[in-house]
Amino acid sequence: MLAVLPYRAVLPLAPLVLALLSAGCMPQDIPPPFDRAPQAQVERGRLLLAQYQCGSCHAIPDVQAARGRMGPTLAAFGRRSYIAGHVPNGPEHLVRWIVAPGSLVPGTLMPAMGVSPDDARDMAAYLLALE
Question: I want to staple 45 with a disulfide (CB 3.0 to 4.6 A). Which of 68, 78, 84, 123 is the partner?
Answer without folding.
Answer: 123
